[in-house]
What does this fold into?
Amino acid sequence: MLVKVVCAGGGPAGLYLAILLKRQDPSHDITVHERNPEGSTYGWGVTYWRGLLDRLQEHDPDSARAIEDASVRWSDGVAHVRDLTTRHRGDQGFGIGRHRLLDLLADRARALGVRLEYESELTGPPAGADLVVAADGVHSALRTRHAQAFGTEITSGRNHYLWLGTTKVFDAFTFAFTETAHGWIWAYGYGYSGEHSTCVVECSPETFTGLGLDRADDAEGGALLEKLFADVLDGHPLIARPGAGWLNFRTLTNRAWRHDNVVLLGDAAHTTHYSIGAGTTLALEDAMCLAEALRTHTDLPEALAAYERRRTAELLSAQSAARYSARWYENLPRYIDLPPHRMFALLGQRHSPLLPYVPPQLYYGLDKAAGRLEALRRFKRWIGPRAARTLQTRSAARRG
It folds into this structure.
């Protein structure tokens, strides 16, 4: 069916799709165009969980082994609230440097015969391509060119966040909540190598302006954040990427993921709030799904339609979890004064559609009881979405 495939974007989604398509049929002519120089990338480390590693193993054992060997792992979560600390055992998580991940995928793609063209940006579908893959991120030039056909919508979150690195190597997924005279500011930290960790800092707009972060230059802002999180950094510096500033998270959705022979992949198709740590996982799963659709359907339009149907359905739960997770942090004062172990328990339940509508102490008690009784667990899973829909409808009616 396919002879020539052109992919815009040399991130994890585009590279992994090229790997899978070459494994399916070595005769495919596949080129990946990346607008940045080779070896340059934004971000620090990315997270993933065992389930992704198992799926990578099924699709390409060689790259799966390389990624696992280059990753660090943890199983604990730690929350620091004021001068109190609580630690919980959880599922095993993994961290890997984004730069390292891209190197591994690029090496694997080249070994299979994929052409990688760096400092090469596609702004329109090239002539002669059977399939054009827009994997060029949230600011995709290919998607923007046909924004009306894709039905692109972007909404901005309320809180401000900043993506940083640090030489402090966290031994667990670490949350640090610091109270200031202008409200709370918090950080998420996780290791991704033996020398570095990612540290994402977030706060409300009121705290952002109250602390003067809207007016501070990089050095002033960095010094203030190092002071605010001194207890968890243990004297290590925070490292900013040149030119990276504070942002509001942009949730991107598309009504359609395909137009003619152009198909969207990864962040070009969808984004989910960073607090659920799923962006890279979802992008790689997009690539797996698209490769499978192209393998099982001989007609290209049918394959692209099947890919779109399946992935939009599969993403519903992750997108819902991301929305509720972002809302949890936007309403942090509702939970922060609970005893730390209870606050951390509800932090783990932040994806629940019921939690915003139930008093936190009551929800904690119900959740603890549900953990002991299977019948109550089933009832909670059944009643949560229904109650949330009813309460949301009533709230919208009152606002109207």
Summary: DSSP finds 14 helices and 15 strands in the chain. The longest strand covers residues 152-166.
